[in-house]
Write the structure tokens for this entry.
Amino acid sequence: MKSCFKVFRHRRRNVILLLVVVAAICLIFLAFNDNLSTKSSAKAVQRRSSHVVELPRTTAIAYSHTKEIDTRIHKVSKKWTLNGSSAHLSSVRLNKQKLNRLSFVRRGSSSKQPNWNPGLYYNASSTPEVFLQWRREREVMCDGRMVGYDHEFVEARDLTVDRKFCTCALQGGELIQDVINQEELAEYYTFDVGCFQIGCAKRPSYFFNGENHLTKWMYSIAVREVSDKVDRVIDDFTIAVTRYEYANLFHTMTDWYNAFVVMQFFNRTSFDTNILIVDAHPYGALDSVWTQLFNSTVRLAGIPTRTRFRNLVWGIMGYNSLMKIFVSPTPPLIEDFRSFFLSAYNIDSRRQIDCAKLSILFIWRHNYLAHPRNPSGFVSRKIHNEEQLIQYVKRKNSNSVVTGIQIDSYGMRQQLQLVANADILVGMHGAGLTHAMFLPKRSALIELVPNYWSPMAEHFKAICVWRGLVYKQWFNNDPRNEFSDQSTNIAPQIMNTLIKNTVRELCGN
């Protein structure tokens, strides 16, 4: 009997010990879980206070990663161009978990905050004429839930995007070397009826100017009850953009300008303007600029399957940009756009010219990998005798600071710093001359054009005309100055004469 009692007593003690251990584990788990909840709540509050579109945690990537991405992309470009083979790229792989999608880019709290303007760049007395025209030509649809403006863009309320009906084989944001020779059409979505859904008595009918992807979007609208279940509701003001020639600075500049103008038209600022990218291009060196200019950027592949936008604007197509009408009067808010852009990178835009010590900046065009359809990275319209040219100009202009750089090998902030502090920008015809947009107000552009290119292209001349800058163009009339690698030899004496004439017009001496 005593032995049975001892066994029972030992078993009871073991059970009690086991219960104590289980209770301790539960307490530890609850404390850990509570700590996580507190942190999550704090982050949620922080996101709401900064007007960031809240998206699934798996799609988020900190803005601090974009510097690393840009640096690696430049290294990849150089290495690919020099070696001409993908075999040399294996050492430049990045963490696929971080970079495979790049579906959502949010500015990190540790990164330097842009100096955004908290107000508008115009007032009632200075409203751009085109804004007044858009308001006059507005067309209301769906009991006010959709409004079209002059057949250029649309504002929608309570519009649901259902990705089951917006299809693309790609996610977008892939590294270029992973998608070499990828077809361009593969990077665009197919829109079936139901991609966009809105509460409406009948399907809206509206057309857009030119051959426009927004017309396809309109055809894909399905009528649904606003009360239909969705995975996420986004309250923030959002502009939907499809990019063409996404690796080209000029064409991407038209997209940035369009978004800026639409943002201003709707009385919004960078603090509460978000961008929805509706394409699946691989990651490019210009992608990180979007999140510097606007509150947040999200790819279509990065949002939940059914997402309702309380306030979504289908933005102006890049090819329809007012920056593309070269014979037009000055596009609205063009100087304000310059200030908006430079202030986003905290760059002082008030440089004054010093004719006793001018800054002359040559930008070179070198081979580099920019998109999948050009795997060799070959670039045309290069200068054959760069070193000879710059040394001669330095000798003949000893009081000036003369610099020559491949500008696309720098990050955007450094590019802007260099251009915003230049008095004369010199370069072959190419997208890099779009930087004339950021030259000081009293400055000049010298555009060089090879024999095999048309001197009638007006992209950069138009920017100078709009901004009141001095513009000079040199065209090579002698085919013997052209080389097989599509580089052009420019006589140093001719270059120096161009600079002297430009200085005379800038400084009057």
